[in-house]
Amino acid sequence: MSKRQFGLIGKNISYSFSKNYFSEKFNLEEIEDCIYSNFDIQSIEDFPSILIKNPELKGLNVTIPYKEIIIPYLDTLSDIAFTIGAVNVINIGKNGDLKGYNTDWYGFYHSLKPMLEIHHKKALIIGTGGASKAVEYALNLLNIDYKFVSRYPGLNNLEYHEVNENIFQDYHIIINCTPLGTFPETENYPPIPYSYFSENHIAYDLIYNPVETNFLKKARLKGAKTKNGYEMLLLQAEKSWEIWNK
After folding, report:
1. Are residues 35 and 149 located together in one domain of the fold?
2. For residue 140, is it within any domain?
3. Cα–Cα–Cα angle for 37, 38, 44, nearest 5°?
4. Which of these, 157, 158, 154, 153, lies nearest to 193 by C-alpha position?
5. What is the pLDDT of residue 1?
6. Peptide bond before 184: cis, by omega within 30 degrees of 0?
7. What positions carry a catalytic annotation?
8. Alpha helix segments (H runs only) across the chain
9. Mean pLDDT per 10-residue run, the chain (246 residues)?
10. Does the residue 17 lie in any domain?
11. Looking at the structure, do residues 222 and 116 belong to the same domain, yes or no?
């Protein structure tokens, strides 16, 4: 019996959550006709060869750094993925057509919402990559105002040096969407003034490995509520599975 194959597209993804998660899911739920593989590619130009070499592929997850630049390789996008401008799930149809979806927003939305209190009205999104676009989409649904923090000036952007005490007094949700602090370079963290975190703040890090990044630790020591990206990953993964099995 041929097996349905699923996998993850990314770069330097040996640490990845997805392969372990889905392999364990298939085992626990006795799903014997599915396997999940990592496809670690150094360039997005290698993506078509994966499809050629793996004709049993039915679906893919997509991670850093390909969530945006994979879009030209796809045939269609869901409305939400089109709006966000980033893809983390690909469904492969019976005729080989590739449709991109975004489930990151769903995972972020449902993991952040229970933490919110009345004063959580504004957020800083650190980073401007594909993951930050899903966060932006979710914040819009939650009616939370936001600004991006980036190394580069831009519309609705703050540069790192502009994040000061006044900003922290106005923005009580701080979300790290950069890879700074990810294993193995766990000593890194976004260059913001952590001394201004307080018990009124939420610090949310999309990183899940390590469990507590320096970003989260520094915020926690100032009294902030903290959350890593693990629950977001669980939620987006289950939503991926739903898409693949429609």
Report:
1. no
2. yes
3. 130
4. 158
5. 59
6. yes
7. 67
8. 17-28, 47-53, 79-84, 104-112, 130-141, 165-170, 214-220, 230-244
9. 90 87 96 96 97 96 94 98 97 96 97 98 95 96 97 87 97 97 94 98 96 98 98 96 96
10. yes
11. yes
